[in-house]
Specification:
By secondary structure, this protein is mainly α. The protein has helices at residues 2-72, 76-89, 94-109, 113-122, 128-145, 148-155, 166-179, 183-194, 201-217.
């Protein structure tokens, strides 16, 4: 009888649970349905946004590649027009990339691209890494078109040990000082490169070559060990 009693108890419990579920459904069913609908709508909405985002990025990427092709074909005015449109209407990171590429096209045309890069470098809405890259490009252009002090104003803050762009910044500063005839300052910058264990080998080799030239010129005293 123990077995039959156990079976009976199980059946009663199942019925009770069933009745409780029915009561719960009558009380809360409409809320559960509404919640389910919201979840479905949210999922669909996310998928639609994801689809739009992917396609918008893809479409903008195609436009950027088309502008790059125009630039490569030296159709600079057409490339600049396409890049300007991307800067205003592009999706994701492409507006910033369009600005950088437009500045490069201006350089190819012989325009004052340094100013365009300087503008990007000062724009706080642009990611820091891109700002630094723009400042670096501006600084290197100023070696030919500006003064040593202008190069310093653009790049000195990037020549500190914690900055990932310090190697190229120091090289530009060293070359600008050398070009200005300031051999002592040029030696300082190039020495910072050769003494930095993290300096890329090609940059360190060029810096050492410049140090050898400065020593051979006799215009700056050799560093004392």
């Amino acid at each position: 009888m123990a077995f039959n009693d156990d079976s009976f108890i199980r059946e009663v419990n199942e019925e009770l649970r069933s009745d409780q579920m029915k009561g719960a459904w009558r009380r809360f069913g409409r809320y559960l349905i509404a919640l389910a609908v919201l979840i479905v709508l949210g999922t669909v909405g996310y998928k639609v946004y994801q689809y739009w985002d992917d396609n918008a990025s893809s479409s903008t990427g195609d436009q950027f590649l088309a502008a790059m092709k125009l630039a490569d074909e030296n159709k600079n005015d057409e490339a600049l027009a396409a890049l300007d449109k991307l800067e205003k209407e592009g999706h994701g990171a492409y507006p910033v990339l369009a600005r950088m590429r437009a500045a490069t096209v201006l350089a190819a045309k012989g325009d004052n691209a340094g100013a365009a890069f300087q503008t990007i470098g000062k724009d706080q809405s642009v990611p820091e890494a891109v700002r630094n890259a723009a400042k670096l490009r501006a600084g290197w252009m100023l070696i030919d078109t500006g003064t040593y002090d202008q190069v310093v104003a653009e790049l000195e803050e990037m020549a500190i040990p914690a900055n990932a762009f310090r190697h190229s910044a120091r090289e530009a500063l060293g070359i600008a000082a050398y070009k200005a005839g300031n051999m002592a300052q040029a030696r300082t910058w190039f020495t910072q490169i050769t003494e930095d264990a993290a300096s890329p080998r090609n940059v360190a080799n060029r810096a050492q070559m410049m140090l050898d030239n400065i020593t051979a010129s006799g215009k700056a005293p050799a560093a004392q060990g």
